[in-house]
Design brief:
This protein is of the alpha+beta class. Helix content is 56%, strand content 11%. The protein has eight helices and four strands, in the order E-H-H-E-H-H-H-H-H-E-E-H. Strands 2-1-3-4 form a four-stranded mixed sheet, sandwiched between helices. Helix 3 (58-70) runs antiparallel to helix 4 (74-83) and helix 3 packs parallel to helix 5 (85-102).
Length: 174
């Protein structure tokens, strides 16, 4: 006996190639919050890591974000770090652990994760995939096969993402 109920397609995905020490990514935070509020679980918003060499704490910050996701508080952690980019510039890994403590996460586990490198492969894989699809800076958005570069200008980007998301969601209903 087979199940004849229709299979609902997965929610459209918005990949956000981001770097937590990037001032442009901090500027994009309002757009990301607005997109999450507007679409909720109808749009899967995925943070993808693209640490840039010019920011010396960005690779550690990406690993720390993965630990925050592991502990169930990914977005609050990412938003807090992005809001305080200057503190990350000054405080490095100690600041990343302090943010975990402020958010009620297991700060000792963050410290251990940064030392043992348990999330390095995820960060490396994101960065390699980003390079393979032409990401050169952050933030860069990919939705519906279209790449939108927010590192040069974020003007009109949220509206463009919403246009594509709305189209993809309408196609799901058909």
């Amino acid at each position: 006996m087979s199940d004849s109920s229709p299979v609902r397609p997965a929610a459209p995905v918005l990949d956000v190639w981001c770097e937590l020490q990037c001032p442009d990514c901090r500027s994009a935070l309002g757009d990301l919050r607005a997109l999450r509020a507007r679409y909720g679980d109808r749009l899967e918003l995925r943070l993808r890591h693209f640490p840039l060499e010019k920011h010396r704490h960005s690779f550690a910050a990406a690993q720390a974000a993965e630990e925050a996701w592991e502990q169930g508080r990914g977005w609050p952690y990412v938003e807090t770090v992005l809001e305080r980019v200057e503190e990350l510039d000054r405080g490095g890994e100690a600041f990343l652990v302090e943010v975990a403590r402020e958010l009620g996460l297991d700060a000792e586990e963050f410290d251990t994760a940064l030392i043992d490198g348990r999330h390095i492969l995820i960060v490396d894989a994101d960065q390699a995939e980003g390079k393979a699809i032409g990401v050169t800076g952050t933030p860069t958005y990919v939705i519906g096969g279209e790449r939108l570069d927010g590192g040069k200008s974020q003007e009109g980007l949220r509206e463009r993402v919403e246009e594509i998301a709305d189209r993809l969601l309408a196609e799901r209903r058909d």
